[in-house]
Amino acid sequence: MKYMLLITGPVYGSQNALTGLLFARNAFSSGNNISSIFFYCNGVTNFNTKYSPSKNEFNLVQAWIDLNKKFKVKLNVCESASLRRGVISKKKNNIDKELVYFQLVGLIEIVQEMRYCDQIIQF
After folding, report:
1. Does an H or E element contain 82, and which?
2. b or e along 64-97 (b: 16 or more beta carbons within 10 Å of the residue's beta carbon)?
3. Distance between CA atoms of 71 and 84, rounded to whole angstroms?
4. Of 5, 78, 87, 105, which is the active-site residue?
5. Residues 41-57: tens digit of each pLDDT
6. The pLDDT of residue 47
């Protein structure tokens, strides 16, 4: 089964993004494929390394990066939603080096990815 995940939940404040991450890990470990993960609406905050959880708290942003490193899944972030929420500026010069694992894209990317997946799941 080939999935595409749509993450609309914020990095902290709801369980949506964490549930999406756990689903992705389980999907890969059970032999399924995830073509891409698309962060949209409040989900773009998963792309923000300015969040700094305490050392004893789970770092969800780093967990997405680790998922990309391990499984080479595309982490697409809606550019316009990121601009509206202040995650990036128009100059894009405030993007951290760690975030090279995420790709800023437009909504057309989600439409293109939909064509190649069996199921879309929103978190």
Report:
1. helix 79-84
2. bbebbeeeebbbbbbbebbeebebbeeeeeebee
3. 30
4. 78
5. 999 999 887 778 888 98
6. 87
Q: Domains in the chain, ordered, with CATH? A: 2-122 (3.40.1260.10)
Q: What is the pTM of this model?
A: 0.89
Provide the phi-psi class of 41: left if phi over 0, else alpha when psi is between -120 and 50, else beta.
left
Identity of the residue numbered 102: F
Q: Is 78 a catalytic residue?
A: yes
The most distant pair of C-alpha atoms in the chain lies apart, rounded to whole Å, by: 41
Tens-place pLDDT, residues 77-103: 998 888 888 777 766 555 566 568 899
Pairing outcome for strands 74-78 and 102-105: parallel
**Gap between the Cα atoms of 58 and 115, Å rounded:** 34
